[in-house]
Amino acid sequence: MGMDDKIKNTAQDLTGKGKEAVGKATGNERLEAEGDADQAEAKVKKAVEDVKDTLR
């Protein structure tokens, strides 16, 4: 996994955590769900990059 990809995935995960926290604090279910989705997407991207690294 390239360093750029790691940074982007980490940023997306942190953004998702922030959205989720704000959504929970404000009772905004849509924002909370969007945060969960961002985190899930970042995890999938990390898993794909890990597989690529393993195959190299």
Strand content bin: under 5%
Give the termini distance in whole angstroms: 10 Å
**Helix count?**
2
Radius of gyration (CA) equals 13 Å
Mean pLDDT rating:
93
Order of helices and strands: HH
Biggest sheet architecture: none
Estimate the helix proportion, in percent.
over 70%
Q: Can you tell me the overall shape?
A: elongated
DSSP strand count: 0
Task: Give the low-pLDDT segments.
Answer: none
Q: Structural class from helices and strands?
A: mainly alpha
Structural descriptors:
56 residues, mainly alpha
How would you characterize this protein structure?
The model has no long low-confidence stretch (mean pLDDT 93). The protein contains 2 helices and no strands. The protein has helices spanning 3-26, 29-55. The protein is elongated. The chain has 56 residues and is mainly alpha-helical.
Describe the structure concisely.
Helix content is 91%, strand content 0%. With 56 residues, it is mostly helical. The longest helix is centred in the C-terminal third of the chain and has 27 residues.
